[in-house]
Design brief:
The structure is a homodimer of 312-residue chains.
Chain A: E1 19-22, H1 24-28, H2 38-50, E2 55-56, E3 59-60, H3 73-76, E4 90-91, H4 95-103, E5 108-114, H5 117-124, H6 128-144, E6 148-154, E7 158-159, E8 163-164, H7 167-180, E9 184-189, H8 196-208, E10 216-220, H9 227-236, E11 241-244, H10 264-273, H11 282-296, H12 303-311
Parallel strand pairs in A: 1-2, 1-11, 3-4, 4-5, 5-6, 6-9, 9-10, 10-11
Antiparallel strand pairs in A: 7-8
Helix pairs in contact in A: 2-11, 6-7, 7-8, 8-9, 11-12
């Protein structure tokens, strides 16, 4: 990287600081076809923390039958116990998953909902309302235990079966998740079709209906190259939590080189350039993604990782 | 593509219409290693026009020694004569190039300047002021002939030798190009390092110093994944001319899969989603990029092209 680049030039109306919710270790690795050793996952999370990430989604307590790649959650989670000051949320699908997470001392959990009936059916084998009913006791018990709860909301902009998703439909489920007691939401553009006006329309409507912007994270996919401009649009409306995946890990359903998750490095490049503080060291993070890509046997789809690692 | 996606949701403060200055046939193909047949280039330009593009940079009248890939300019340009209503600018480096372009009836030319001394030296073997002196008679004569002149300005945000490029330095050269008589400028982020605040700071300063925003085009590279968010930032300040390259052709100096130019398809996806009119049919454009990629023997780096062509 040429010294002094990107040049930091703030833009008006953006937050001073953004919290990056790093999903590579969970959302990224869960899609790997070959088994990733537990020790490698633990080292990955430690390296992410060393690069300055403070919220690192660690694993999932879903039934091993559904996500075999994360079947080692019980083994992995205790290996992260030394990471003081780093929030390590874990995904829990139901009460059984919550039991497992609480038994290991997890202090942050996430449930995974859908804004559309089609995806709720495909992913959870339930209607949207049935899935909310399934989450209710999970969220209630987590709150009793003073555990922080994130509610993921998938398919907030488009759905592969249903096409465009109306804003009012997303707002209804978002409010329902908040009413259950979620501390924060993550609005997912699961198939990557969102554009900035749609993002701002959803955020404005949520604000109008009483879902506070500081309880909202955005989770964009780069399938059509839109993730970073959507992120900018969200920051312009006051969002300060952004999900991203180191190296762009994960979410490549149809082509090796196509991407799913927004790469954390591409995000940090933009935020560094905007003078928005993240606490992340881009050089160390890139080195971590290069290191992991070598172990996974294929290059990172992150443009920033590719550019920086080819120049070094 | 799922029907109805992207869903069109306008964002406040954006232009109703954007003119895409398509650079794939010139800026894209000039970097090809193997010779692209003239007939293939002519078909490519015709297909771009069929997809709705109305400004298609066709070729370059630079000396064949420097850009052998475009040595067939005299042969190619007359094959585009049937494209009524399509602007076909051509690059001319000097008076000799202008003579050649005028002899073939070109009505739009472009000169290629640099905001930095290092790149002026590397690319033009001149200082910035010497290059402006070289352009002066070219622009003057073009204006006498009522030929439209675009002034490219490279390295407006960062330079591989000099690092960050101060805004005042870019503004000085931009004003000098306008004073020579250029009708429009194209602000180039040649190494892809710009971020949205930097883009807006440059545009604001140009406006303050009397360079009208409607005379400005933006030319972003996607090296670090920033091109589309920078474009959004430019649109928010009133820019209505955006350079892009079909399929993301061109500008891959160090890795096959890394990209240079913003892909026109990724841009059109965003603009379609924002309800900003371009006149471009995304499906036909994508089909053209897939068709060309097959002939060039490697996949398009455009995320939208990859996503749409894998789903079809």
């Amino acid at each position: 990287m040429t010294e002094g680049l990107p040049m930091a030039v703030p833009a008006p109306g953006l937050p001073a600081r953004v919290r990056i919710h790093e999903v590579g270790a969970r959302d990224g690795l869960q899609n790997e076809k070959t088994v990733v050793p537990t020790a490698l996952k633990a080292e990955f999370v430690h390296r992410l923390a060393d690069a300055g990430l403070t919220t690192i989604e660690a694993t999932s307590f879903v039934h091993p039958k559904w996500v075999p790649q994360l079947a080692d959650a019980e083994e992995l989670f205790p290996q992260l116990a030394d990471l003081d000051g780093v929030a390590l949320p874990v995904l829990v699908p139901n009460e059984r998953g919550l039991d497992r997470a609480l038994a290991l001392g997890a202090r942050r959990i996430a449930v995974f909902g859908s804004a559309t009936e089609s995806f709720a059916r495909a992913n959870l084998n339930r209607t949207v309302d049935e899935s909310l009913a399934m989450f209710a006791p999970v969220v209630a018990r987590a709150r009793e235990e003073k555990v922080h709860v994130r509610g993921y909301l998938s398919m907030c902009f488009g759905d592969p079966w249903e096409g465009p998703v109306p804003v009012r439909q997303v707002v209804r489920v978002a409010k329902a998740l908040m009413d259950l007691g979620c501390d924060e939401l993550s609005l997912g553009d699961t198939i990557g079709v969102a554009t900035p006006g749609h993002v701002q329309a959803l955020l404005a409507q949520l604000d109008e209906e009483g879902v506070p912007t500081d309880a909202i994270g955005v989770h964009f996919h780069d399938t059509y190259g839109q993730a970073l401009s959507n992120t900018l649009a969200a920051l312009q409306l006051g969002v300060t939590t952004v999900d991203a995946s180191a190296g762009g890990l994960g979410g490549c359903p149809y082509a090796k080189s196509a991407t799913g998750n927004l790469a954390t490095e591409d995000l940090v490049w933009m935020l560094d350039g905007l003078g928005v503080e993240t606490g992340v060291d881009l050089g160390r993070l890139t080195a971590t993604s290069v290191w992991l890509a070598e172990r996974l046997g294929r290059p990172s789809p992150s443009r920033t990782v590719r550019a920086l690692s080819h120049k070094e």
